[in-house]
Amino acid sequence: MAGRGRARYSPSNMQMVLASIGEEEVTLSRGLGKMQITSTPPPAKSAAAPSSSSMSSRTKLEYERMKEQLRYLEQERAASSKARVLQIKEVLQRAQEVDIAFLLDATNSMKKSFQMVKNEINGMAAGISLSYPQCKLRFALTVYRDYDSPKVGGLDGCNFTSNYKGPNSTFSNTLSQIQLSWGVDDAEDVFTGLENAAKLDWQAMNRLLVHIGDAPCHGSQFHDDTVPDDYPKGDKYGRSIQAILRKLRETCRITRYFFCHINKQTLKMIQEFRKAAGRGDWVEEWQINDLSKVPDKVIAASRAAITESISLVQHGGAGQHIFAKEKVDHRIPDWNRVRFQEGTEFVHRQCSSLDQLLKTIQEARPLDLMKTAVSDVHVQIALSPFSEEGNLRYPYYALVAGRDSDKPGRVEVVKRFKTELGKSPTSQHTKQRYVQQMEVQTVARQLAQEFNKSTSRLPGVPKVKFTEVCLLETEGKFYTKEKLLKGEWTRFSNNGEYVNKVNYAATLQAFSHWTYYITSGLLMVTDLQGVKVRDPSVPGQHVFRLCDPAIHTNDANVMRFSNTNFGEDGCKLFLQSHQCNDVCRHLRLPTGRAGNTDDGTLVQGIKKS
Questions:
Q1: Separation between Cα atoms, residue 483 and residue 472, nearest integer Å
Q2: 399 membership: H or E segment, kind and range
Q3: d(Cα 10, Cα 27) in Å, to the nearest integer?
Q4: Which segments of the protein form a coiled coil according to its record (predicted)?
């Protein structure tokens, strides 16, 4: 019955039928499939009004069917939201799983390294969990010596285990039972150590190999002539470093290989490893003069891996999606060689107040779409994108002018979703998907306007402005279009825990916090990126010009604002790591669990509260 009702009635004739009955008023919201019925008294009937018992019976039957349809759609929406929340929890948990394997040279000169790992393993785990309390950690250990090292007893490592806390843990007991030995020459059998690492039971989404050594492998191509080596022609067993590293990267899918240089003897070896790996950034070098710095490096690397994984799960998780590659050209094209197209532009009508905006979201109604003031345009779109850094979309330069305008065109940016291989391009480039993407920035833009009013009396606090986005339809294709931002591009945060500490922006951290507070937890604007430039309207002041944010909502609205919306779990990721700064304090925002910081913008001329 519900299925037949959906096929038979449209929202418009449902409204007409119910209005003719006069028993209830129906409010239909199609943004997320929500349809709400609110009871109102029936209108008074005139004594002279005609009546028809047969018509009344048929109409009431239709009305009952429509009520059933509305209940079904509401249940369907609730079920979809619940499924999405469960999916978010699953992928976020997966993104916070980390396997860390230590690969150590088990010769006598490395005794301090073994002691450091044993003493600091709990501290490393605590440091990672401080940023990501829900993370799931496993540690492993494997070692190597030299071909001709004397045989020793004890263990040679342990596979991944979550039993690493305390002196009697599996991990600590293994470390205690490893016996070190001397080698004959200075070079070591590093290849066997790497092969041992490949045999470990790697499972987590984030897989880190931390290699600590003070001697290179055999073969003169891997070290200077000053290093004694009984096998200068290379590995005793003829193994290939390319094949070993390929197995670690492609078969074991290790996220990153970190090597800790204790001295300069290993520098050349890692240069060769980077070449052999095929991807130089996959092998990362740490220059370590003091072993006490290693734990902080491991903590930072683990946090960075989790942060990157969280940014990837917004479109299903790393490695699960392959997009069609496009050739990138960073230059603005010669417009004389780019053909003209006719297009039409649409924007969202801005709500009259913040209360109206929040009510629209709470009631799951779509924002009104309308044509722009100059809706009909001539547009020239570059053949190639100028960047490939976006996770989901390619940006293109575009020259845009009104069809009836004598003014020269202006260079702007149009963005189009990357096309996933193996799926229908038509299904990936629907108008609805582009409208949804545009809505995220429209909502963020209005919230930023309200935020600027709240900070207008705080000297030294830059304004926050999002570029206005419109939907461009041309020749059957859809794009989002916005102004070209000029300046040094910076990602200040993502839709997870990441905060740019090098270019820390206290105002933007406060903005994300404020959006959650001012909407009573309905939503939070995150993933802030763009440029910081001089504000032409205020001498000596700056302004953040941003685009492409993400919005997290409460779980009831988790189906809105695209897949970058992680719901309440996304809000928690921000709040559990956010440190309130001077701007937060002056806005009287509640202090979160991470406490306070003095970093970033200090409100000028106002005593700290």
A1: 13
A2: strand 393-402
A3: 13
A4: none
- From 88, 112, 209, 61, select the one nearest 495 (Cα to Cα): 88
Backbone phi, then psi, for 206, in 5-degree steps?
-105, 120
Q: Which helix (H) or strand (E) holds 553?
A: strand 550-553
DSSP reduced 3-state for 245:
helix
Within 96-177, residue ranges assigned H as helices are 111-131, 170-177
SS3 573: helix
- The C-alpha atoms of residue 39 and residue 22 are separated, in whole angstroms, by 10
Distance CA 46, CA 30 (A): 35
Instruction: Give the whole-angstrom CA distance, residue 354 versus residue 398.
Output: 33
Both tokens of 150, joined, read 């004397």
User: Is residue 296 left, alpha or beta, with left meaning phi > 0 and alpha meaning psi from -120 to 50?
Assistant: alpha
DSSP 8-state class, residue 251? I
Residue from 191, 188, 181 nearest 109 by CA: 181
Asked if 264 contacts 239 with a C-beta cutoff of 8 angstroms, the reply is no
Euclidean distance between CA atoms 164 and 118, whole angstroms: 9
Pairing relation of β-strands 256-261 and 542-547?
unpaired
Q: Show Cβ contacts of residue 33 under 8 Å, excluding neighbours closer than 6 positions.
A: 73, 76, 77, 80, 364
Cα dist from 180 to 176, 193, 320, whole Å: 11, 14, 42
Sign for the CA dihedral angle at 407, 411, 414, 418 comes to: positive
- Among the listed residues 409, 293, 284, the one whose alpha carbon sits nearest the alpha carbon of residue 341: 409
pLDDT digits (tens, 9 = 90+) for 354-383: 999 999 999 889 999 999 887 789 999 999
Which residue, chain included where needed, has tokens 């509401």?
A: 74
Return the closest-CA partner of residue 511 out of 537, 546, 482.
546
The alpha carbons of the chain give a radius of gyration, in whole angstroms, of 30
- Distance, CA of 498 to CA of 55 (rounded, Å): 63
Please give the torsion angle defined by the CA atoms of residues 598, 599, 601 and 602, in that order, rounded to the nearest 10 degrees.
20
CA 89 to chain centre: 14
H-type alpha helices, 375-474: 425-428, 431-454
Identify the weakest region by mean pLDDT among 308-317, 370-379, 431-440: 308-317
What are residue 138's phi and psi, to 5 degrees? Answer: -135, 145
- Report the SS3 class of residue 282: helix
Longest CA span, the chain? 114
pLDDT in tens, 178-216: 888 887 789 999 999 999 999 999 999 999 999 999 999
pTM above 0.70, yes or no: yes
Question: Can you tell me the distance from the alpha carbon of 448 to that of 441, in angstroms, rounded to the nearest whole number?
Answer: 10
203 has which bridge partners?
A: none
User: Which residues fall within 8 angstroms of residue 464, CB to CB, at 6 or more apart?
Assistant: 448, 451, 452, 507, 508, 511, 543, 544, 546
Quick check: 338 and 382 in contact, CB under 8 A?
Answer: yes
Q: According to the model, what pLDDT value does residue 517 have?
A: 96
The residue behind tokens 């002196």 is 167
Span 47-59, pLDDT tens digits: 444 444 555 777 7
Q: Could you tell me the two tokens for 240? A: 């290939």
